[in-house]
Amino acid sequence: MSYITIGNATVPALWISVVAALLVLSLLYRKDEQIKALNDVVFTYVLVWKLSYIPLSFSAFIAAPLSVLYFHGGYVGHILGVIIGAVQLYRKRIIDEDFLKIWGKLFAFIFFIHALFVKDMLIVLLGLVLLIFWWRRPTMLAMVLTAFFLQLATEWNSVTVITYVLGVIVIYGLLKYKQQLSSFIVQVLVLSMVAIVIQQTLPEQTKEVGEQRDFTLQSLSGETVSLSDYEGKIVVLNFFATWCPPCKAEMPHLQSFHENSTGDVVLLGVNLTKRDDGIEVLEQFVHDYSVTYPILLDEQDEVGALYDILSIPTTYILNQEGRVVERIVGPVDNGALEKITDTLK
Question: What is the percentage of the chain residues whose pLDDT exceeds 70?
Fold first, then answer.
């Protein structure tokens, strides 16, 4: 997921895109009751999606209550939010052709604005085409193209995209295109398969964002640790400070990742000691969060500068040759780390 850095805070670009799209449509349809209902449904979905993190990751929430601000219920939370939002829509009795047109425009706006943050001109162009289709001819063709574009140009889960688009098409089709409904469903499935095939046949772009950057630091336990000591293993470098709220939020997730990791994956915490509040505070921090993976002390900020650390937390994933293959700005959970490291094994 792409993040936008605002001061010392990191905010997912997708969140900004959703808020911006809702604001634009609210201004364009400010007298329309349906946009108000849409805002209510989106708010309900986000609330359920976020708060479902508490029961689904209860131990992590208890260890760091502020983690609810930075994490969510994942795929299960998404499904719960969609179900409750759908029930809310049904009770409002406003699902008609005009509502689905506004919904489609919202989705097209989100896709286009998010594409601008990603700064990939191909995705921006696809987003613009999608937006124009929804604006000028809000028909089933626009929805069919939505399925194709989303799968071709984004990293979103294919099953989620297909399920979402087919669900809207069924509702839309029952309202206006009953006789053509099966044809539209077949079109979506065929184009979805085409998009998946194109994704798989495109030459794989390297994810490397940096060369080898070896360093040597003292650990909190007094050992001398060099990055080159872990050659042949996947290394996760997490840069943090004890005063940083999102750093606190991700600690239970990092510890869980460490406990579940196999011998070919290593997690190293790099404390930006020069920017932090001292060794005693760090020792208490490590004790409070029951951290058992190695904590390295960057006392001169040399490694922080070497890895261009501006916002924290920042996490780097290094492959077996010690090269950087992924950079994550903002808090990260154990599921995301497991997914990334599994692809490198």
Answer: 67
